[in-house]
Design brief:
Elements: E1 2-3, H1 18-24, E2 27-38, E3 44-56, E4 63-69, E5 71-74, H2 75-81, H3 83-89, H4 96-110, E6 114-117, E7 131-138, E8 145-147, E9 156-158, E10 163-165, E11 180-182, H5 183-190
Parallel strand pairs: 1-6, 4-8
Antiparallel strand pairs: 2-3, 2-7, 3-4, 5-6, 7-8, 7-9, 10-11
Amino acid sequence: VVMSRIQADWANPLLENSRDLVEQSDLIGRGKVMEKIINERGDQTGVLYKVTKVYKGEIAENQVLVWYDGCYIKGEDYVLNHEDAQAGFEKEGSSPKEVLEAREKALEELSGKIVGVGLVEGQQIPELGETYLFFAWSIPESSEYGGTGHEYAQGLFLIHNEKIQNFEPKAKGIKEPKSQIDVELFVNKAMGK
């Protein structure tokens, strides 16, 4: 995966612990990723979850759309269509020939690769077919949500064998196996139960 320029959504705070995640979230749920879409700007991924359990909040149906900053796109699509790439080619003072050469070079380098756009270190985008524990905030005047948290403190946990990785934001940069915790135990502790 090739990363484009780093950008951050500073409206999403770096949270210190699981209770902060609970406080900052309007919805806490468990669901399987059924579909992923990329917004028009190509800088966010919408994830449609089939929700099997709601721990906090309410939803009208058993599915919910949660938007996450960043996305993965084909290298060719990035070079030919994404505004970040176009801005990079069209630097101030560049001649049309230089812009074309830069675009052709990038197309050669990125063809057949996947490019991460608008992602920060430690951030994840949910995978199709996987089940997650997710924390989300309500987008005003919408039935959609935004993912709570940012970077290593992202409110998104892959569920495997009814367990998730223990929430330790400062330790997530360590490349060693992390402790696992039961999903229900984690949620109950985070919610102060």
